[in-house]
Amino acid sequence: MRKNLSYYVKSYKLLDDDVCKQTVEELKKSEEDQINSWRQHTFYNVVDGSSSTRSGDKELDVSHVETSTRPLIMDKIWQAYYLYTNDLSFPWWNSWNGYSLVRFNRYKETRLMAEHCDHIHSLFEGERKGIPTVTALGLLNDDYEGGELVMFEDTVLPFKAGEIKVFPSCFLYPHRIDPVSKGVRYSFVSWANPFTRNKSQGFIASYAFNSATGTINSKPVSVYRNNEVFCGADDINFSIDDSSILLTEQAKDQIVVISFNKKTGEIGETLGCLANPQANLSFPHTLS
Hints:
This protein has 288 residues and is mainly beta. The chain has helices at 17-33, 70-88; strands at 10-13, 39-40, 43-44, 51-52, 61-63, 103-107, 113-116, 124-125, 129-130, 134-139, 145-146, 149-151, 155-157, 163-168, 175-177, 180-182, 185-192, 203-210, 215-225, 235-238, 244-249, 254-261, 266-275. It has two domains: 5-192, Jelly Rolls; 203-275, no CATH class. Helix content is 12%, strand content 37%. A seven-stranded antiparallel beta sheet has the order 1-14-10-17-6-5-2, with helices on one face. It is globular.
């Protein structure tokens, strides 16, 4: 295990420019169309139950407004957590039990976020208990000045639009956003629940294979996740032309068809689902 704290701060470029720009446009529109869609951020005091800003009227604004890109952003956050656990590869800490709905952050000129750690006691109070263990922080634009992400008191972390930074939420990782001096900074954040295995998280991943050496790259080329469609595949195969992936799942008595690009290894969207009784499937669901 590495002793350098900065090692556990990882950055992943997962959102393309078009998604970032579309999200920013919709966030700007929400400011005009939806009254009270944004509010000033406050910190919760677990001792007395109060909430207040730490920077007066300089604290940022936050929103849970629904954008057309939110499902995609949520999926990319999942991918960031997946890559993070893969990169660390700890046998004692390798999964999670859900994560919070994405929250959008807006920093107008002179706005900032006071130094803090992400011990959010009020976040998981329902079926899932506990404070967040890992934070995913994403940036939607970088056409502003100031607004640096600072960690460990004086370490400025470079941040580009489309990147998601993942780091522990504990007290060893205090961070802040310095005041924006020009423009408006838009970002998003989500927090992962305590890392206990969630059997309902169905996903598949594609990996690059080197036929000359017989080795598989440790990092996935593409990851697909859709808990609503399937929980886990019993058999995986390809269509005749390799343009789609076929998954069979006995738990739901179904076959799921997902698009696939054999040249790039990119796993695409769900194309369809064949399920009983309409599909007339029978066990075992083995494809050949």
